[in-house]
Amino acid sequence: MVMVRRVRASDEQAWRDMWAAYCAFYKNELPEEVTDATWSRFFDPSVQVRCLIAEDGGQSVGFATYVLHLYTWGANPVCYLEDLFVREEARGRRVGQALIDKLIGMAESEGWDRVYWHTQGVNAPARKLYDRFVPADDFVRYLIDTKGRGGEKNVLPFPDKRGEKPPHDRNR
C-alpha cells in the first residue's frame, strides 16, 4: 500500500536518485549546486519549497515537490505542484494519484485556496492521471529564460525545443 509523507533528511539518497531520473526523463542536466540547493530548501522554514515522498513496502517510489505562495486573487496561499515523479517500476500502482491526493488533502486541511500544475502537452501518461482530477484549462504558459541571456546553459526544465529565439531576443 502506498503511503505519502513529508520528506525526511534520511530520504536524501533516495530522493537524489529519483531526482536524477526525473531530470533525465526531461533530458535536463542540472548543476550539482542546483540539486543541493533544492534539497536544502525542503528543510528551510523560511522557504516555501516542500517535498512529499511516496513509499510502497518501505521503499521510496515517488516524490512531489511543491511551492506554497500567495496570490492576488485570494487571501490564502495556493500550492503549485512543481515536480511529480514515480519510479518506472512503481508506475501503474496509483503512486502519482496518492501524491496528488495528499496535496489536495493538505490544501483542504491547511486552508490553501487551490492546487495547480502544468505538464508538457505530449506527456500522455501524466495527462491521463491529471485528467482524473480535473480537465486541463485553456491557459497557455510563457517562459522567458533569463539565465540563457548571458550565454549560460539553460537549466530550466522544458527548454524550448523549437530551436528559435523568442521574439524579444530576435534582434540581439
What is the number of helical segments per DSSP (H or I, 4+ residues)?
4
The second-level CATH architecture of the largest domain is 3-Layer(aba) Sandwich
Helix content: 25-40%
Q: Please give the largest β-sheet.
A: 5 strands, mixed
What's the total number of strands? 5
CATH class of the largest domain: Alpha Beta
Q: In CATH terms, what is the fold-level topology of the largest domain?
A: Aminopeptidase
User: What topology, given as strand order, has the largest sheet?
Assistant: 1-2-3-4-5
Task: Report, as a whole number of angstroms, the end-to-end distance.
Answer: 55 Å
Please state the overall shape, judged from the principal axes of the Cα atoms: globular
The CATH superfamily of the largest domain is known as: Gcn5-related N-acetyltransferase (GNAT)
* Residue windows where pLDDT falls under 50 for at least 5 positions: 162-172
> Which range does the strand content fall in?
15-25%
